[in-house]
Design goal:
The protein is α+β, with helices and mostly antiparallel strands. It is built from 17 helices and ten strands. About 45% of the residues lie in helices and about 15% in strands. It is elongated, with a radius of gyration of 32 Å.
Length: about 425
């Protein structure tokens, strides 16, 4: 039989219950193997209950000290009741100076106390009892998150000025640096917003005209890491020149914002438009445009493209790659059966082969092919090669070499590149 003897407005602050005639403190903490909350109990006395009822600060301090014991129990272990009981008198019944001294020796959950209004400066000085004079029953989770974020920054020596903090708030990355950045002007104090927008304008001017293309080798929505790194480097250099007072965290969040927005624009661009932008970087390489092509992957799946269809061959091919590419599916082929030629893209090796039919098979004899290999420089290189082949066939690829027909020579070239 379990009866609730005392509870506070916040459901997470530990309750006092009576179970089979015994007073116990009950709290929820952690989760089990099925991600369900765990509940722990341990015995207390009437004297402890009296302090818990009357003194919110001591109640919260006890909670903060017991939580690490709950964490140590893990998903299925038992609470160390002896250790929990040993905390009762020193926290609930001892003099404030003794409580402060205890908290210098034990583990405790700082963020829990911060969420309930503890004075952060006093906490940091070890004056936990004095810090809890401002404690409240209600919890402010955002205050605790900001405290933890500032502690993480302090641990790595990052000190934010007012403008640095405003920029991080503007991008939504003040609490979590891994959060996808976005523009939140309302999160910035009005007095600082003009300075923040000047920094953002510097970044926008630096990357004007730059784009982050898609990389279908890694899926339909993946983007080109090289383009991302190029934009990031450009933006950060410009922002540091124009605003040398900014710390690295602020500079990085601005470049992250610019790159994220550019990548999202690319993801929302139809494949034809994305391919057209890539074609502007490619050389024409000839005028013998294809009328029909066959695309295949390493799993034997085939897709046909006809010139009178609604989409370009390159756009159709890269969509095929985006749909089919995977860790175990990294070889894709484009074949022009009419002209007897094709290219095979080896994404796992950053290389390509062009295959030309020298002699058709007749009277049971095998056809004769010429196979040549070349190294490829990232997704941009692949895009240029595909565009050139679609326009002018294997002959249009001559200028994109060197091409090697000897497999051993090619492997040596590939090893030399990988060693750099």
């Amino acid at each position: 039989m379990r009866d609730v003897v005392f509870t506070r407005r916040s459901g997470w602050i530990p309750n006092v219950i009576r179970e089979d005639g015994e007073l116990k403190l009950m709290l929820g903490a952690g989760a089990d193997a099925n991600h369900e909350p765990r509940t722990f109990t341990f015995p207390i006395s009437e004297a402890h209950l009296g302090v818990i009822r009357e003194d919110l600060a001591r109640h919260l301090l006890l909670w903060s000290a017991v939580l690490p014991l709950c964490d140590a129990a893990g998903t299925r272990g038992r609470l160390d009741e002896n250790a929990a009981v040993a905390l009762l008198d020193p926290i609930l019944l001892a003099a404030p100076a003794d409580v402060d001294a205890l908290f210098q020796r034990i583990g405790w959950d700082r963020s829990r106390l911060v969420a309930h209004g503890a004075d952060i400066a006093l906490l940091e000085r070890g004056q936990v009892c004095a810090a809890m004079r401002t404690a409240t029953e209600t919890s402010d989770g955002k205050r605790a998150q900001e405290y933890q974020a500032n502690r993480r920054r302090a641990e790595r020596g990052a000190v934010l000025g007012p403008l640095d903090a405003a920029i991080l708030r503007y991008t939504g990355q003040y609490l979590h640096g891994a959060t996808i950045p976005r523009r939140i002007p309302d999160a910035v104090a009005p007095a600082l917003l003009p300075e923040v927008t000047r920094v953002i304008a510097t970044a926008e001017q630096a990357c004007a005209g730059m784009r982050i293309g898609r990389d279908p080798r890694r899926g339909k929505r993946a983007t080109d890491k090289r383009d991302w790194d190029r934009m990031k480097t450009t933006v950060e250099a410009a922002v540091r020149r124009a605003h040398p007072e900014l710390v690295d965290d602020a500079v990085r969040t601005v470049s992250f914002l610019m790159c994220s927005e550019a990548a999202e624009r690319s993801r929302n661009t139809p494949m034809e438009d994305d391919e057209e932008a890539a074609d502007h970087r490619a050389e024409s390489g000839g005028s013998a445009r294809k009328t029909a092509l066959s695309f295949t992957d390493d799993k034997g799946v085939e897709k046909r493209w006809l010139r009178d269809g609604p989409r370009t061959a390159a756009a159709e091919f890269w969509e095929f790659v985006g749909d089919r590419s995977a860790a175990d599916n990294e070889v894709f082929t484009i074949e022009d059966e009419e002209r007897g030629e094709g290219i095979q893209l080896h994404f796992y090796a950053d290389s390509i082969a062009r295959i030309t039919t020298l002699r058709e098979g007749r009277d049971g004899s095998e056809p004769e092919y010429q196979v040549e290999y070349s190294l490829v420089d990232g997704i941009g290189g692949y895009r240029n090669l595909v565009s050139a082949f679609v326009r002018g066939g294997c002959a249009a690829l001559d200028q994109h070499g060197p091409w090697m027909s000897d497999v051993a020579d090619f492997e040596r070239a590939r090893r030399r590149r990988n060693a750099r």
